[in-house]
């Protein structure tokens, strides 16, 4: 019984993509779990994405979802919002109800709007009936991080040269593990 977790993100300069890759590592560290790294189309111009663009069928059939975006004025990036605006068929059929989900982000500074961006990404997931997971304070790195990571989801500060801190790596991987374990439990029901 394989459990398929979609790691869906938009990343313009690579910081959000770096977090996505660490969440995928966490997912795949759990036996019987597979991470599918996916992105969304650009609204203008050519995409420099290294991962395939998501299709609604992949989202429909996933067992869990990690959703990530850079912080744009305290909100998710427009290409990601545009994608969610096209998911009405999944909403009407209830295909995402009771599936576990989490969110992650990157910003250019510590006070760049990470938590508000994480909240904006939760809104469409809640409307779809998904179950939102965060990072519990039982995770020690959440108490000591000097860069990214919140109880609402994994994060990074992209102004640190695009390289994730050790704390950010641990928190992203722990979030991926938590998501995979929750998806496995739901699938066994």
From TrEMBL:
GO terms for cellular component: membrane. Keywords: Flavoprotein, FMN. Residues 5-180 form the Flavodoxin-like domain. Pfam families: FMN_red. InterPro entries: Flavodoxin/NO_synth, Flavodoxin_CS, Flavoprotein-like_sf, FMN_Rdtase-like_dom. GO terms for molecular function: electron transfer activity; FMN binding; NAD(P)H dehydrogenase (quinone) activity. Its cofactor is FMN. Belongs to the WrbA family. This is NAD(P)H:quinone oxidoreductase. It comes from Vibrio ouci.
